[in-house]
Amino acid sequence: MKEPIIEFKDFSFRYKTQKNPTLHDINLKIYPGEKILILGASGSGKSTLCNCINGLIPFSFEGEIKGSCIVNNTETKKSSIFKLSNTVGTVLQDSDAQFVGLTVAEDVAFVMENDVMPRSDMLPFIDKNLNMVGMREFVDHVPFQLSGGQKQKVAIAGVFGNHVQVLIFDEPLASLDPQMGMTAVALIDDLCRSEEKTVIVIEHRLEDMLYRSVDRIILMGEGTIQADVTPDELLKSDLLKTYGIREPLYLTAMKYAGCDLDSVKNLSDLNSLELSGENTAKLKNFFTEEREPVIEEKHEPVLRFEHVSFNYDGGRNVLEDINLEIYKGERVAIIGKNGAGKSTAAKLICGTIRPTEGKIYLNGTDESGMTIKEIGENVGYVMQDPNTMIVKDIIKDEVGLALTLRKKPQEYIDEKVNKALETCGLYKMRNWPVDSVSYGQKKRVTVAAMMALEPDILILDEPTAGQDYKSYTDIMNFVNTLNKEYGKTILFITHDMHLAIENTDRAIVFADGKMIRSDKVFTVLSDEETIRKAHLKQTSLYTLAVRLGIDPEMAIRHFIEYERTVKTHE
Q1: Interacting residues of 333 by C-beta distance below 8 A, sequence separation 6+
Q2: What whole-number distance in Å separates Cα of residue 489 and Cα of residue 313?
């Protein structure tokens, strides 16, 4: 049997600034060529574990180590980041922290330049790596000026040029559109299988990662390993629920239908899972049984686009001839591939940029005659990258900043800030410096800051990116309360099809700067042409329905109606 390339023995680590260990009692062996998925809620120790492997701990983050961490036959605490970097490569969740080149090509070439590769040999590799992630046309662009999803692609392309034996991916799907997410999962799998790399992935999106097989799943909780199991063993247990991990949609449907999961073979692979006749009958009944549809009231439009087009500095239109209406109290998913114009539409709504052509009406008033401050009284926007929003040093000060600028009474500010912090799971960190928390926690800080304002229209740009299921659920529960009890209009710019299915009523789909569809979520997510044009992907509900010979639109609609009935009675 092969020797492990990574081995933890009775390992613990305590950060210098903390009283208690972040990791403890870690015993783990990872073998060459394995593909490992690390799951766990925020604060469970996932990233700390990986930072022990790549050498950031203890050489960048100081602390106390007990036990042993061996990588490629070397005790890490006796090595160096430079030596470990010859074995381990890492794609960070925060892409901005990883870029070193002034152009995309330079950044992808960085590792090859360090290996003193001749330029003539280097250029074909750059083309190949950028083509693999769909970024060849951006070769001369500045990485920091790309969208979140485009940055992620460049970061992934950057490690392809490395000849390391171990690759760590920290939330690789966080900002990718669904179709490119599938491509990324496939590329990561190919790296592992064909190039015999050892791959470790930290990712919250279990369903998306199961698009390709995983050898083992390491479930982290409270700083230690709670489970080291196969995907099938994990899905058949109660561990996902216990440790706050979102289960795949098809698994939820099977539970709703009353299926016997223990009898299902290949449960983690939807394309090859084997259902008994009884389980098949239960699922068919669940997906076809008529239920009372949710009655939706139609209100006056709070937002209207009339023939809106936009371009930057007279270039080609980023958005072209957009006509849409958003109604009061609606929950709308704005979906589409990276660069389709979704975030540009949000900036137009907020007034930070103005239409090149056409009009935008907010509550019946032409926005062209309104200041950004006036628009901001009605519209709140949580941007995709939290680093572009945060201006204060302390978390509670950042969350309360907008209320302070509006000269609200301190008692009122404290009440709203504390409520938002508790909802986003940040209250205990309220006095922490913003720079001391993770990228995902920074995201929650920006969500909390906007929630404290309780605007009439709330726009959330990729709110689930980098969030564990508990944090995501808490945020969504609060947002849905604002919607149901206070009539707030919610717009989600998202690649997360789970979010669209569970929390929205309508989907507006963008592709190549145009609005190509506006319809019920279950209709959009069952239309193959729309999915193809917008770089979406069929959800596991779609795939399961096709395998059962059931109309996917009906199956997704019945799932949504059943789940909302369940949640209403919880």
Answers
A1: 492, 494, 499, 500, 504, 506, 507, 508, 521
A2: 32
